[in-house]
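Predict the assembly for these two chains.
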Amino acid sequence: MAAKFPDADWFLALGRLMEAEGELFRRLGYAEVRFVVHVIGDDGRAERETAVELDGYKLGRAAALEDAPGFDPDFTICATGAVWNRMLDEIARDGRPEARHTLSSLALIGQELWLESNDQLREDKYYRYNQTLQEFLNLSGKLPR
Amino acid sequence: MPTVQIKDEARIGSDARVKLQPSVYLEKLFQTGTPDLSWMNQHGEWGMRAKPGNLGLRLKDIEIGSYGVVPDHGGDHRSMAPRGAVVPSDVPSLGFTINEKAECWADNAMELYEEAVARQWSSARDIPWSELKPLPDDLEHAMCQLCTFLTEVEFIAADAPTRWMSQINQDFLEVKLFLATQAMDEARHTDVFRKRALANGGGLGKASALSQLSLKRIFDSPSFSAQTARLHLLGEGFVLTMFRQGEFIAPSRVDSEIFRRCMQDESRHVGYGTMHLRAQLKARPELAEEIHDQLDDAESILLQLFSVPESVEPMAILLGGGLKHFDQGMEMQANLWRRIVNEYLQRCDSAGLDRRPRCLLPTDFTKLFAA
């Protein structure tokens, strides 16, 4: 059975695609960033949290946060399952989300998706590596759903 | 080995006005054929090997042994002799004026330099210009005015820091390398916004005296740190948020690609500025007052800048998705203004500057309209 977002296995599958698409990510430049994908349920409570690390041009690690003790993220990306699924649906349909539903645009408005971090400088990695982060998620269009 | 043929070889030097005599060393070498080799005994640490990491050999990988020690005070010789080399006593001074580490250093300079080099992009190659489609006139006017503003202001972040770059002691080369990447980034931003303005039938719009005043004040800053506060902390922080807005408001994929890529570059610049001010204020807390004075003036100019139609209206039109949704665009601009101010103040916090009590920027955008 295909892994589902935000399973660690789903991110690991993206990681394999990332290595297969090596040239794209090498052209964007390396990214060294650790983050948590936080999926919030309709009742506002945390549904799932997945720890993800990009190490250069590849996925370094993906694990359920509870299975990653000591994981020190640069930032946490928070959004409801509906918002994440809308982005993934648009990626499946068009290869990328609509301009107002990208990681950058959603975080700018900060209502449907927002960042949490203790350090503005570490949070800035979200913007420094934004193209890589978006292209990484855009690979999900190649995954079976 | 075949002889290299040089055109008119017999004429070379025939009109030279200065005749050089061979050095004592060369005469001896010519006579004896025995190399001197004394230079082999004059080097830094011999036998040290820097090891590349998984992303190649980066600056952090060569910060080893004595080479990795960045001195608090730059070398008194004030020359460009590399840190860690044996420096002859007769090197001429280049007259560097920034000779204290705290005056320019940021702990993330090396990281940001390598990242900048790895993440360079080309406005000609990486922007999908062929996808650019004609836009309604109101949107094209707004985008072109925004591009005019960005073309106008972006290169200050190359011109201004590089004035100081040539004053920075060579022992702090990591900072100079980073500033060189910033200059390259700003060159690309200037070129890409100019290209965008000219690529879809709109062209350049109206330049701004207030923009020019803000640039002049950055240019005339009395110290590198004062300039960093104006440029990196407020100016580039403000533009960074504009770039983030840019992707949101982009009427085409061409525009969203431009803004997203510029945003990545700008984040590095803001990151350097914040960390530099943190280092500087830690070393010299008394400088906080000077930085505050600079920001008082810079914030005041920014507020004036946001009081003219060519600054306010294009963004509202783009945010609203057209002139007919201007009011909606203004509402969105008000929300984004809060974000600009909030992120700016967070960066001040991060730099160790308690700016909140003195900040002139209202968090409520509507206060810009109130008498």
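Chain B touches chain A at residues 54-55, 108, 115, 118-120, 126, 240-241, 244-245, 247-248, 250, 253, 256, 260-261, 263-264, 266-268, 270-271, 274-275, 335-336, 339, 343, 346-347, 349-350 (CB under 8 Å). Chain B has one domain: 101-368.
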